[in-house]
Amino acid sequence: MTKAILFKPFPLYIHVIGWVVYLLWIGGVNVFKYGWSHLWVVLALTPVMLAIFYFNWNGLRKLFKNGWNWKGIGLSPLYLLLLLYLGYQVLYGFPNEFSERILRSPENPVFDVTMFVIEVAGFYWAFAYKGLGLAAAEVLYNLLKVRYVYLTGKRQILEEERQRICMQRWISHFLGNLNQSLIFAIKKGNASFRVLESYGIIWAFGMRIIAREKSFFIPLDLELYHLKRLRGMYPLETLQVEVSGETSDVQVLPMALLALYKNMYKHGDVQSESDAVFKVDCATDRLLVRTENRLAPRSAWVYQEGGAGLQQLKDILGMQYGDRARLAYRTENDTFFLEIEIAVNNGRVQNNFEASGCEKENSGRRAG
Q1: If residue 35 lies in a helix (H) or strand (E), which one and from where to where?
Q2: Which residues contact 364 (CB under 8 A, 6 or more apart)?
């Protein structure tokens, strides 16, 4: 922490407002107790108050900033003696209207050393401690401000680290499943060169994403390219993949579409004659992904329990998009429907989001 930050004074307007309020207060009290004629006494003492206040304010700041200054400590008694001498000359040195209003017995002023020192010291301390208090408050405020900034930044770092770990787990989980299915395909003799090539491309793509520290979003076109590769590895003859709208500027989470397709292949009824649907609609203000496929009897219970990685996908969407994303799914007559809706603005995630509902159908071109 630099000294410039720690000893940064309050803005000037804080000092001005504070002094205006204080002087109005003591001026009003003196006028109420002694009449309007006492107001000029307050005005005459105002420079003295300010001098005492800021002398101690500056002294404590220098003490905090530079440590003990023996020269300053040595000069302090001389400063106090000079203050006592000036106070004596004003009050007792020669008769004047000012001393008559200050002294308790102006008609017969009697000098008493003890009472004089006590009263001058009391007057001095009344403004010295205010200056010391303001200097200490400024240092304390700056310390708390720096501490708050540090903790806020630390929480931000921890949140980014949590998001990075969750994203890495998400991608590594998908790549692990992909690896298992590839081993199974190799054992069955179904791993052609094309399948191995696509596997290598997707694996390298996933590892590059895992290596990132932040900014996990990728272009939608890149995700669609790897989805085409995945479809070559796990072909679904009855699947219709439809993409509509402008995709070039849209950013999405990596492996999201691939995971949806992988679940459709793994848990869907590939022998069914009914078409499976995979739609991606890029509107001007939102990205909409819809899937529809008939479930295999062995997998119906998985979706009923919210399995097949749906909860993990929902958590990832919530972490990366917040309330700007929505995932909804249902099962009707052994057919699974899923919809993901993400609010975007020119391809970027926007802050205000209202779900448009699940009823609207979108047509578009077929991809892959």
Answers
A1: none
A2: 242, 243, 244, 245, 279, 281
Query: DSSP string spanning 302-368?
Result: HHHTTTTTHHHHHHHHHHHHGGGEEEEEEEETTEEEEEEEEEEETTEE-S------S------EE--
342: nearest Cα among 257, 267, 266: 257
Q: Which tokens is 137 given?
A: 């408050």
253 in helix, strand or coil?
coil
- Give the Cα separation of 96 and 101 in Å (integer): 9
Average pLDDT, consecutive stretches of 10 residues, N- to C-terminus, the chain (368 residues): 72 87 83 75 78 81 71 67 64 55 53 66 77 84 80 71 82 86 81 86 89 82 90 82 85 88 80 77 88 77 60 83 86 86 64 41 38
DSSP string for 112-137: -HHHHHHHHHHHHHHHHHHHHHHHHH
DSSP per-residue letters across 279-299? EEEE-SSEEEEEEEEEBPGGG
Task: Name the token pair of 104.
Answer: 């308790």
CA dist., res. 15 & res. 174, Å (int): 61
